[in-house]
Amino acid sequence: GRKDFDLFRVSEEHDMLRESVRALAEAKIAPFAAEVDEQSRFPQEALDALTANDLHAVHVPEEYGGAGADALATVIVIEEVARVCASSSLIPAVNKLGSMPVMLAGSEDLKRRYLGAVARGDGMFSYCLSEPEAGSDAAAMKTRAVRDGDSWVLDGVKRWITNAGVSEFYTVMAVTDPEKRSKGISAFVVEKSDEGVSFGAPEKKLGIKGSPTREVYLDNVRIPADRIIGEEGTGFATAMKTLDHTRVTIAAQALGIAQGALDYAKGYVRERKQFGKPIADFQGIQFMLADMAMKLEAARQLTYAAAAKSERGDADLTFHGAAAKCFASDAAMEITVDAVQLLGGYGYTRDYPLERMMRDAKITQIYEGTNQVQRIVMARNLPK
Ligand code: CAA
User: Fold this and answer.
1) What is the pTM of this model?
2) What is the CA(284)–ligand 1 centre distance, in A?
3) ipTM rounded to 2 decimals
């Protein structure tokens, strides 16, 4: 992939990628978005279409059989899928989240096995950090991993796991030395088929209803010793480094949702007539659209700059990943609320996609660290 981006102009390749993903998303994913939300069912059509076009895990490097998309290209894919269906955008996003620890710290053997499997579409990857009593305070986790001969034995409960049950592979953070808090946490690859792995009932959520969120139960799960990701005790740092990169993908999701809402509302106000003319002719409406577009563009610039930092591995990614995620998700929430408002009563009904987009936007302020946690991260890593 390309290592450098012109901050103020996206390359022709990136623009072409956007056009092709937009066409695919509109043809193969958009038609099911309302139904997937209404029925709270997994968007299998989206997974099939994305996999057929090598877009389900675009971030996997070519040397492991992937498409080798750079961080900005990955952002663009997620953005364009989220523009029509936020639930479906979690397929490429969470595949990156779940497999990033392996990419950052895994042995060559783990990379070949698991990145290859994800790239081929043999299974998706989920990320298991949070627990019922350890959300924002991730290092307070209780899940244990104990070494026993040539195996590790894992025991505990992970909560809020995106795509749990449909994913084949799970990165699990667990305590290997309870005396050391964050320095006593290690990361492992667990497979759905490992004995002792099971799942809770799907959570009943406000939005992203097409993406199952379930607890993952680890009941004396015995895995080969070589499934540890990196050195013992480095799992928390790997988990945090992963989030530095993938918070950029949550920003991308927020951008996509907001773009979808703005595009729809813009079209609507040009058609809708009141007081004898399209409501788009009223300055009150024009000012709302201007503010929405301004916030979206600011969020996009911040996100693309963060993507460039993610691709280059810049030291200040921690601040910029958190800032992009925080800013873009807040912008998406404001923009989708305003988009509902522009449609008036229609915006409030399920006959139009705006209320779904508004509900879907809310999660981007919460997951991969609440926006309050993003501020903690930013404050600890202020730009020099
Ligand atoms: N890069 C590298 N290493 C890092 C790091 C980073 N960005 N951040 C922390 N570390 C390492 C360091 O080694 C650090 O030790 P030193 O201070 O000695 O360098 C060690 O981790 C401990 O870090 P902190 O002292 O900062 O840890 P903390 O307990 O104070 O927690 C926190 C910091 C930022 C609040 C962190 O707990 C956090 O990010 N919480 C939110 C968790 C989160 O985002 N959860 C989302 C789950 S995933 C999800 O939502 C997706 C889904 O599927 C639903």
Assistant:
1) 0.97
2) 43
3) 0.98
